[in-house]
Design a protein that fits this description.
479 residues; alpha/beta; Urease, subunit C, domain 1; 2 domains; nine-stranded mixed β-sheet; five-stranded parallel β-sheet; 43% helix; globular; binds zinc ion
């Protein structure tokens, strides 16, 4: 009787759709690190209503359910959070492979970005979104790109969650002509407008953050106004911090402060708990402490670091209790936008780094559990959204991923957490739910026409490269 009364009450109240997912391994990533070996989740509307052992959940909720999904032993995880991705760079995949950093930036990326239209940004974000969803990402933090309205339109359609940020620069050498004239006031005003237009859009899935591209392209006025406005709007700041070793030299030369970017940012009072510092490769032990004291969040991008930046001291950051999350960076820095690949790399690179710094690898460094936290709950903390996402908890938003572990890449599964980090491939991600809606089922994305977007994006990329005058030399004798 209790079930039918509950059902009646539910339908009378708001008629929210109820989905019962059961008979699976539920990896909650909650405070108690609970894993239900035969568990169930009940999704009501956009939130998780119940979670527990299948035996305790099925009888109570199956009479109420609009949809019942029997997982047959599949694994369920919280949706992954990619905390550093340049969605507007997806059309630039492959335009800057095997080139040095200055060529990468001045001759490829800036000409590309400064020639983008809003439609390019829209298509680029859709193309990037396909790869994000296929790798189980339900929330991402845009690193700072072009045409936020184009990104927002794409995110609304894709059905995922995002913290969108405009690329913001008010100084620096080598900028394309259209960008160099921007003042700090212009940058702030433009971001305020984006905030008022898009923050909270798409059923609350879109948030707007403030951005600083990097210290070399930001005056103190821009840094400090960004800090103040972010506080006023109660939002986050996304910035590339201590990305390349030259940055520390640059800070010494131009700001007269020795010690590095983080030391300088601390000195001017810029380090705050709402700062998401991307990369943070060239930081000293003292600077790790400064980041930790200020509760700054770090986005570790292993593939991009290995290609162009260097080894980030992740083991030391975790030891001191710093919140470290995972990002893919943009397509021209990584080529793959899979957070599944980044989990694997994060573990290997940080074990191998011990040989580089201490003479022997350490297989215990940055273990699987820490890596899985980086991609889920710590990712949610990094984007200041852990009150609603990042773990499977009653009352949180229903953002989840279904993994099919029965294929050659994962069999046999002896320890679920190890397998998810060391064995899982993007292809094992079978279904994805965000905000209570299935956005991918059985590896078919339901929110957009994938083939059509791939074709349009291919065309838009060719046209954009022509406009920007970017030529890619073939690496072999192409006949
Ligand atoms: Zn970046």
């Amino acid at each position: 009787m209790m079930e039918s009364e509950e059902g009646k009450e539910r339908k009378e109240k708001d008629g929210l759709r109820l989905t019962l997912i059961h008979n699976g391994v539920i990896v909650t990533m909650d405070d108690g690190s609970r894993v239900y070996s035969n568990g169930a989740i009940v999704v009501e509307g956009d939130r998780i209503r119940a979670i527990g052992r299948s035996s305790e959940i099925i009888d109570r909720f199956s009479p109420l359910a609009d949809e019942i999904v029997d997982l047959q032993g599949r694994i369920v995880l919280p949706g992954f959070v990619n905390t550093h991705v340049h969605t507007s760079q997806q059309l630039a995949r492959g335009i800057a492979d095997d080139v040095d950093l200055l060529t990468w930036l001045h001759e490829r990326i800036w000409p590309y970005e400064s020639n983008m239209t809003e439609e390019d940004s829209y298509l680029s974000t859709l193309l990037c979104g396909i790869e994000l969803i296929r790798s189980g990402v339900t929330c991402f933090a845009e690193a700072g790109g072009q045409h936020v309205p184009g990104m927002a339109r794409a995110v609304e359609l894709l059905g995922i969650r995002a913290c969108l940020t405009e690329s913001t620069m008010d100084s620096g050498k080598g900028l394309p002509s259209g960008w160099s004239a921007r003042s700090a006031d212009d940058c702030i005003q433009s971001q305020r407008e984006l905030y008022s237009r898009h923050h909270g859009a798409a059923d609350g899935r879109i948030r707007v953050w403030l951005g600083i591209r990097q210290i070399m392209n930001a005056t103190d006025q821009l840094l400090l106004e960004t800090r103040n406005v972010a506080k006023e709007l109660k939002t986050g700041i996304h910035m590339h911090v201590a990305e390349i070793s030259y940055e520390n030299q640059y800070v010494a030369n131009t700001r007269g402060v020795n010690g590095g970017t983080v030391t300088y940012l601390e000195k001017i009072g810029f380090l705050q708990s709402n700062l998401l510092a991307a990369h943070s490769v060239w930081v000293s032990d003292n600077e790790i402490e400064l980041l930790s004291k200020a509760a700054v969040k770090v986005s570790h991008c292993p593939a991009s670091a290995m290609r162009m930046l260097g080894f980030a001291p992740i083991k030391e950051m975790l030891q001191i209790g710093l919140c470290v999350s995972l990002g893919t960076d943009g397509a021209p820095s990584n080529n793959r936008m899979s957070i599944v690949d980044e989990m694997y790399l994060a573990s290997l690179i940080n074990k191998g780094r011990e040989a580089y710094t201490k003479g022997a690898t350490d297989p215990t460094a940055v273990p699987a559990k820490a890596v899985l936290k980086m991609a889920t709950i710590d990712g949610a903390k990094a984007v200041l959204w852990d009150d609603e996402i990042g773990s499977l908890d009653v009352g949180k938003k229903a953002d989840l991923v279904v993994v099919k572990p029965f294929t050659w890449s994962m069999v046999p599964v002896h320890d679920c957490i190890s397998s998810l980090v060391y064995c899982m491939r993007t292809e094992n991600i079978e279904s994805v739910m965000c905000n209570g809606h299935w956005i991918m089922r059985d590896q078919k994305i339901l929110t957009i026409g994938e083939d059509q977007i791939v074709a349009q994006a291919k065309h838009a990329s060719i046209e954009l490269l022509k406009r920007a005058g970017i030529k890619i030399s073939p690496k072999m004798n192409v006949l």
